[in-house]
Amino acid sequence: MESVYPKEPLEVPKEVHEQPEQEQLLAPPAPPSYDQATATTTPTPAQTTGPGTVPATTGTSTQHTVIVVPSSPYGPDPQDVQCPFCHNYTRTRVSYRPNSRTHLIALVLCLLQLYCCVCLPYCISSCMNTNHYCGMCDHYLGTYLRK
């Protein structure tokens, strides 16, 4: 069976050790001089296209940016949270506020001539939004919106 390794060490040619051209290619480019940096010339489109810019297009296509706003992390019930104001771990204090759905239900009850029931949507917490406050420092933390 033949050995995979050579019997004698391989000689490395001197050309491999001396490669200044490749070292220059790997070196970062020098920064511009003061005169180049302060010159008031209009940049080319290749210079303006960077990670924070959008290249201009001459066609009819447009680029839209969609921003997704995260929903409130709070629910309809009190929750254990760390307050961002006082940094205490506490259970939130909740208060209920009427919303447009609450008023709409009351209006429908009024139109159905159920006048004695008009106050019920204002007494039932599931018909209103829930505001969360810190249990220690009483700062407003967020709102759970009923849909």
Strand content: 15-25%
- What is the H/E string? HHHHEEEHHEE
In round numbers, the mean pLDDT is 78
Rounded to the nearest angstrom, the radius of gyration is 35 Å
The biggest beta sheet reads: 3 strands, antiparallel
Shape: elongated
Count of strand segments? 5
Name the structural class: alpha+beta
Strand order of the largest sheet: 3-4-5
| Multimer state | single chain
Tally of DSSP helical segments? 6
The low-confidence parts are none
Q: What is the CA-CA span between the terminal residues?
A: 78 Å
Helix percentage range: 10-25%
What structural keywords apply?
147 residues; metal-binding; transmembrane; 5 strands; three-stranded antiparallel beta sheet; zinc ion binding; LITAF; elongated; two-stranded antiparallel ribbon; alpha+beta
Would you summarize the structure shown here?
Belongs to the CDIP1/LITAF family. This protein is of the alpha+beta class and 147 residues long.
